[in-house]
Amino acid sequence: MKVCSLYGAGFYYIPGTDICMKIGGYVRFQESFGHLDSTGGPFTAGVGFNNRIASANQIYRNRYILTHDTRQQTAYGTLRTYMILGFSSDSNLASANAAGIYSTRAFIQIAGFTFGKATSYFDFVSTAAVAYNAGSLSAPDTGDGGAIVAAYTAQLGNGFSATLSFEQERQRGTNYLGVPGTGAGALAADNLGGGNQLQDIVGQLRLDQAWGSAAVAVAAHNISGGYFGANEQLGHPGDEWGYAVTAGLRLNAPMFGPGDFFQIAGVYAEGATRYASNTPGAFVRKDGGFVGFQFVDDGGYSGTIAIPGIFEKTTSWSVMASYEHFWTPSLRTSLYGSYFDISRNDTLNNALCLSGLALGTQLTGQAANRAAGCDLDSSYWAVGSRSQWNVTKDLYVGLDVIYSKLNSAKLNAAGTATLAAGNGVAAGLYRIDDQDAVSATWRIHRDIVP
To answer: Quick check: helix, strand or coil at residue 298?
Structure first.
C-alpha cells in the first residue's frame, strides 16, 4: 500500500482510490479494588457494596478497541469518517464475564459539519485523560460513551470557533408529583413523567491558543410532561425547558514540566441535571446497616386536566479540576477532584417526598419511608490521583486511587429506610447516613497504532 503523508503518520491510500486510511486501536486489562459497584467504579455509580459475605469488591476488565479513520480531499474540504468499535468483558462476583460489542464513535465530518456519535460540544474537561475512575467524577463529560450530534462549527480566526449542535437528549428521571395540594400520586396510567423525544440544543464558543484553551457553552433541554392520562385524548401539560451553562479553562504549564497542564470546568443547571453530572449516583449501601441515597432528576410536574398545576425544576451545579505533572517524559502523575450538588425548592422537595416518586426497587413501604423531615437534597465529591509509567511509546501501566464522599439525602426525621432484599443487601431496616469509599484501579494498556 502507498503511504499517504497528507494527514500524518500511519495513513495509507486505499488501493485504486484517493482515500487515505488509518487503522489503530488498543488492548487493555485493568483490575479494581475497594468499595465498588457492579461496573467497577466507586459506589456512587449505582448500587454499591461493602459486604464481607456477598461482595463485588474486586472486578477485572478486559477491553479491545479498533479505530478506523479515513480522509479524502474534496471541493468542500477534507471529508473524514471515524469509527471506534469495542469489546469489553467484565468479571466479578456480581456479574461474571459480562461482555458486549459496542461503538462509541461513528461520525462523518465535512465543511465544518459533524454528523454521528462524537464528543458532545458541551464537554470541555476530559476526565479520562487524568483518571481511570473517570466515570465516578461529577463532570459535564460524556467521556467514552459520547453523544449523537448534528453540529456545525465555524472557524472564526485567531483560534476562535463557534458551534451549534443538536444532540442526544441528556434526560435524568423527570418525575410527576401528583395532585396539587393533596400529597396523592397521579394515577398509574398517567404519563406526567415526560415523553420528550426532542434533541437538546447546544451552543459553544471556544478559543484554542499555544497557552491552552477556554470555552463557554449553553444547552437547552426539553422536559415537557406527557399526557394527563393514558393517551392524547386527555390533553397534556404545557411545554417546559431546562437549561445548563458551563465555562472551562485549560492552561499548559511547560515551566513545571513538558506536557504539564491544568484544567477546570464548572456547570450550573436547572431542569437539565445530567449536564452537571453525566454519571450521577442513585443509592448506595455500606456494610454495618447504613445506607446513603442520592436522587437525581430534572424536576417534577404536579397536575391533572382539572387542576393543571406547575412544573418545578431541579437545580444542580458541579465543578471538576485536575493537574497533570510529568516527572519525566515517561512518568506522570495527576491530581483531580470534583463536586456535585443537587437541590430543590420546598414545593418540589415536599411533593416528591409525599407523592408517587419511585425511589428504587429495593425501597419497600414507600409511604413509611417518606415522612416528615424528608429532604432529598444531597451532594457528592471525590478526590484522587493517578500515576502512569509509559514503559514504551505504546505501552503503559498505572495506578489510580480515589476517595468518594456522599452527603446523603434524608427520607424522614428518624433517618431510617426499609430495604427489600437484592444486590447483596438483606431485607430490613437500615440507618440513613453519609457514605464514603476508597477505591483503586491498576491498568496495563497497549496502543496499536502505526
So the answer is: coil
Q: Is the dihedral of CA 295, 381, 94, 27 positive or negative?
A: positive
φ, ψ dihedrals at 352, nearest 5°: -65, -35
Check residue 41 and give its pLDDT: 43
| Chain centroid to CA 380 | 14
Q: Residue holding cell 448506595? A: 284
Q: What is the DSSP letter of 232?
A: G
- The x, y and z cell numbers of residue 118, run together, are 462524537
Measured CA to CA, the distance from residue 162 to residue 156 in angstroms comes to 7
E strand or H helix at 351? helix 346-354
Nearest to 203 by CA among 270, 122, 271, 140: 122
Span 70-90, average pLDDT: 93
Contact 243, 276 (CB under 8 A): no
The number of beta carbons lying within 10 Å of the beta carbon of residue 5 is 9
Which pLDDT tens digit goes with each residue over 134-178? 777 777 788 888 899 999 999 999 999 999 999 998 887 766 666
Residue 187 to residues 223, 302, 358, 366, Cα–Cα distance (Å): 20, 12, 13, 16
* CA 23 vs CA 13, 68, 82, 321: distances in Å: 12, 5, 10, 33
Compute the CA torsion angle 373, 356, 281, 60 (nearest 10 deg): 130
What are the E-state strand segments in 11-76? 12-13, 20-34, 58-74
Contacts of 142 (CB under 8 A, 6+ apart): 119, 120, 123, 278
